[in-house]
Amino acid sequence: MTSLASPPPPGWSLSDLAGLPTAGESISSLEISDDGGPGGRLRAARAAGLRFRAEFARSGMPATIDTCDLVTLPYPSRFGLFRATKALAPFLSITNRMLVIRWTDSGGRPRVLLFEPSDVELGRNTPYFAELLRRTPKVVANRVTTVHGTVLEHLARLGIKPSEVDYLVFDHLHTQDLRRWVGTSTFQADLNQRARAIFPNAKVIVQQDELIAMADLHPLQRPWYQPEAYRDVPLDVFLPIEGSVMLGPGVAIIKTPGHVFGNQSLVLNTSTGIWVSSENVIATECLTPEHSRLPGVAAWSRAWRQEVILNANTIETIADQYNSIILEKTIADRAQADSRFLQFFPSSELTPMWTNPGTSPTFRHCAITHAS
Q1: Which of 2-11, 161-170, 217-226 has the weakest average pLDDT?
Q2: What is the per-residue burial (b if ≥16 Cβ within 10 Å, else e) of 144-160?
Q3: Which of 63, 154, 236, 291 could disulfide-link to 340, CB 3.0 to 4.6 Å?
Q4: In the prediction, which pLDDT does 1 show?
Q5: pLDDT higher at 1 or 148
Q6: Residue 6: pLDDT band by 50, 70, 90 thresholds?
Q7: pLDDT in tens, 289-344
Q8: Required co-factor (predicted)?
Q9: Is 78 exposed, middle or buried (0-12, 13-18, 19+ CB in 10 A)?
Q10: Is 245 helix (H, G, I), strand (E, B) or coil?
Q11: For residue 245, how many C-alpha atoms fall within 13 Å in the half-sphere facing its CB?
């Protein structure tokens, strides 16, 4: 198996991050106290979601939201439908998508945010996926992986120049290599160049907790990160945040720890109501599993009295992830097409594939589309 020994980490520290600017306006209604026991923290998350939901609905709306498919690829069923699946298929398929959000700020300046703009090519170097590719015959890998389009191809289709992008946001930095997006300070042997930033004016909004974690990874985290890819990335490309922030009308980033220590979710107010997006679950039915037709999911939820089904590949802090999903579930509106499900848009959404029997979702969103 590919070595999972810790590669050279980025050299930043907490004191380095303290000197960086941050982004947005802090959301006080989502400050959740650690007081009380585990059950109290869950109740606090639900109460915070209700408070925020009421105020966020009055925050306005962005101008446009576009959805761009990047890649469909295999992912272990035991991770994506944690403990609940009875499907025979060891793998399911997920589609990674990018959201492009545009709005005008209070000063009249147009803003562009890319949510999940993954560099799919460099993402294949993530230790877990690199090992999976090594063990999979190329002809099989080509059959189960579909690249739909690159970040730059989608932006060109939307008429957006790379220089017009203000923010890059990920729910977490698993698999992500940002060198081509934000540039490097030194020559990169594998890229055969000192990378010049494709997005020269963009800043990466990320939870401070995740940057700190990446500088000193735990063994549970190592299969999913590429810390060496951040060693020569200029620290000033980051806008570290602590908690939840409003970025613009109907655009917020909320702290949702658990899947990773520094996980965060995107919240959007649209013409159909409030949407939430992250990779905390891989299908919207995982928030209302009682309505799922996926083998084993509804029965497992009933038997274990758990109201959500986690996407859990690292299980860093699994109780926190459960609470974060409850927060997301409380904030999101009901889906207009089927009110049994919520307007939760998985950044990696479960996708039916003939090779994976028993993993076809009951309901899919496939896209968020909005124009104010």
Answers
A1: 2-11
A2: ebeeeebbbebbeeeeb
A3: 291
A4: 42
A5: 148
A6: low
A7: 999 999 999 999 999 999 999 999 887 789 999 999 999 999 999 999 999 999 99
A8: Zn(2+)
A9: middle
A10: strand
A11: 16
370-371 and 64-76 as β-strands: parallel, antiparallel, unpaired?
A: antiparallel
Domains contained in the chain, CATH given: 14-371 (3.60.15.10)
Look up residue 116 and give its amino acid. Answer: E
Q: Roughly what angle, to the nearest 10 degrees, separates helices 318-331 and 38-56?
A: 30
Residues of the chain by 3-state class (helix, strand, coil), percent to 5: 30, 25, 50
* Residue 84, token pair as written in the block: 């609940």
Which residues sit opposite 343 in a β-bridge? none
Above 60 in pLDDT, residue 4?
no
Q: Report the mean per-residue pLDDT for the chain.
A: 93
| pTM tops 0.85, yes or no | yes
Q: Nearest to residue 253, comparing CAs of 331, 312, 307?
A: 331
What is the rounded distance in angstroms from the CA atom of residue 318 to the CA atom of residue 335?
27
| Rounded Cα–Cα distance for residues 352 and 355 (Å) | 9
- Helix (H), strand (E) at residue 41: helix 38-56
| Tokens read off for 252 | 């917020």
- Do the beta carbons of residue 41 and residue 317 sit within 8 Å? no
Residues in the chain: 372
